[in-house]
Amino acid sequence: MALASLYVNLITRTAAFEKGMAKSKRSLRSFTAQIAHTQKRLIGLAAGAIGIYAVIRATKRVIREYATFEEQMAMVSTMLDKQAMHFMPQYTKALKRMSVEFGESTDVLAKGLYDILSASVAPAKALDVLTISVKAAKGGFTSTAIAADTITTILNSYGYAAERAGYVSDILFTIIKRGKTTFAELGPNIGKVAALAAASNISLAELGAVLATLTRSIGQTDIAITGMRGVLRAFLKPSKEAIPVAEKLGITLSTTAIKAEGLYSILDKLSKATPEQVAQIAGRM
Fold it and tell me: What angle, rounded to 10 degrees, do the helices at 106-118 and 2-77 form?
């Protein structure tokens, strides 16, 4: 009898325990679900806050860029006379389109356009030169400012029309390809020799060929161009001491001689001179 009573009591307790466990499991699942829901809400709120912050930052950046662009365009307008002011709407529209096409900020493009106009490029041709400059910058891993400055410097040095900007860009990339230099190294330095080369009756193609050879041999663009300037100055304004030294090498120090023989031929003769002779002809440079 006692055993039967104990058995019944045990069964009852077990059932109550299992019932309690089941209830606990349901409570735990409910609590877990509540935590997950709360986490989702918190994550959503955090994402929303981050999103709002990102939107605010982006908006500020856009406003800042727009203000800078407007300022740059105002500067561009100062480069135009009254007759050319009608180009301003065209410039604004084109720069916005180019910004999307080339992934360049509008204020950078506006600054490039300003530099091109300040280099005396005709307003009607300025956008063409800017487009070539941006493409050159992207292809040469340099800035639009450097590309525009380099191209317009050479255009002015040789007295080329704006239509030859593409040709100038091609010559620059040929120097980079055949020599040992980069657009970032060549751009700021080639202007130092371009005007002298043009005054010495040296074509841009010949100048490019020589610079490609020199940079490949020397390995330092600035030194190659500095040396080139020294040689050209010797032909433009030879010293009394330099003339007889050059004549011993079969070289006539005049721009007429450069035009007649070609720069490469003259440099080939100079390469056979001693360092002392070169110093006497070209000076310390």
Answer: 10
